[in-house]
Amino acid sequence: xxxxxxxxxxxxxxxxQGIHITSCRHIVNVLMSELASIKKFNILSIFNLNLDLRxxxxxxxxxxxxxxxxxxxxLRQLINLLLSGNIExxxxxxxxxxxxxxxxxxxLIQFLDKFKxxxxxxxxxxxxxxxxxxxxxxxxxxLKN
Length: 145
Fold this sequence. Notes:
Blueprint: H1 2-6, H2 13-37, H3 43-63, H4 73-84, H5 93-99, H6 105-112, H7 133-144
């Protein structure tokens, strides 16, 4: 991305910022669309998605374009929730408003329905939370009510 966006350095600021905003919005839309279309995911896939998102966020920070990071807010909050190890905190209204403002119940339910615990043969780093399907089912049920 850095190499591609170097081509825009000599454009007027408002055009350059528009290209950055539109590009980041498109990247997020594609990622969210792909997440919506997957059949199953586990904590390892979220960990890897987090690494990719960090790369985009690092690029955005370097660009110094105001409010560009907001394009990634929904995806960042979803990843943070899943990697927090405490999926139930989404049910606490003050916590949700403070940490997960951009997550809609509909998208969250749709996504959580696809969660699958890693196979017993999978090597999961100890640093990753052990999300249990049972806990996710409880959250889904409460979100639907």
